[in-house]
Amino acid sequence: MADDDERAVGPAVPGSGAPDVAPDGRAAAEPDGEATTGDGPAEDVPTEADGAPADVEDTPTEVDDTPADVEDTPAEADDVAPQERAPTPEPHVGHGRHERPAPGDAPPGGWTGLFRALRPHRSRAQVLAGLLCGVLGFALVVQVSANQGDDLSTLRQSELVPLLDDVTQRSELLESQVRDLESTRDELRSGAAGKQAALDLAEEQATTEGILAGRLPAKGPGVDVTVIESGEKIPAATMFNILEELRNAGAEVVEINGVRIVASSYFERVDGDLVVDGTKISSPYRWKAIGDPPTLETALQIVGGAMAAVRNKGAQDTIRQLDEVEIDSTRTPTDPQFATPVPDPAGS
Amino acid sequence: MIAVVGLIVGVVAGLLLQPSVPAAVAPYLPIAVIAALDALFGGLRAKLDGLFDEKVFIVSFLSNVVVAALIVFLGDQLGVGSQMSTGVVVVLGIRIFSNAAAIRRHLFKA
After folding, report:
1. I need a surface site. Which of A131, A143, A202, A235 has the fewest CB within 10 A?
2. How far is A157 from chain B (nearest CA, A)?
3. What is the per-residue pLDDT across A28-81, written as a single tens digit (0 to 9) for each?
4. Nearest CA among A284, A285, A196 for reference residue A241
């Protein structure tokens, strides 16, 4: 960009007339300078125009321009060109330290120039320049490798402080999120525990009620009563008496000939056959009851009680107390047709 | 040629030794490297112009590096270190670009 500006300026210089050349050259150089360092590009301007072989027709102008630049030269130690160029057109202006550049050596240009530059010729200054280049390469690699490592180590304190603030803020945010999530998790966990407890309780109740309602098979200590008719039929009322005695003695589960006895069970005689809950059964009648065995037997053997009535009808009876009575028969409870539960006043 | 050899030797040495940058010079090393690169390109361009002088090259190289590091150091002391290094990098980058353009013109005539 700066170069293009310079090229546009170059041809314009001769057109502006010889007397104005020097001021004009300064004026042309100045805007470039403002764009960059101040005097940096100003030094570059003449050099490029001078060096480019395409600008040969500018040469007279450049030569006129030179004195204006020479004033700057001592201050511009880092730029090679103006100092080198100054002696070439006007040798008397030289600073006394340039002996090398011969006028014929000035524009080698192109690849030959590059190859000539690369041709080794030893001198103390060349070796020193090589040494500096070595230092540059070393520093370059060191910096690159340092930059590829932990990039925080190259930062300044003023850059690290906001970084640290950032990280701290972020970690605080994350910590608060962790707390929120942990409390949510605890809530859910306790909720799940509560739900599990309720579920366990419900299952327990279902088991208890299932046993009592005849829905589940059950086992436990109890009695096994066998009644065998001999001739005379045992009336249904007598059989029902046995059941009542068992219930009074605290029997929890009762079965007769594989029929589970529930709250709505009934006995009746239909055409001489004993029917329990719609199922016809016949002698021998085998009762099974789960409860406290001695209590159950005592209740059945009571004087003038159920067993006495059975014996009055000429039947034989056996009562055995057992540590384990297993009752496998079940009954599916029917849904109540008229009754509905009263809502719990506690509301839980 | 010696310069190129020196550059290669330096790069190889840096790769082999893998030294760590001391914390004190960590902010100045990249700036110094950029400044040295600028001097290197300026020297190459002067070479192609046929105006190269080793003494000038060495002095400009060293003074470039020192001044660049000094500016950044000063900026650090004034509390504008990062802005200052940005400014130095911009300036040196522009100079490297213009030098590279001149070199390109020499080599490719375009």
Report:
1. A202
2. 10
3. 433 343 333 333 333 443 444 343 344 434 434 334 443 433 333 343 334 444
4. A285
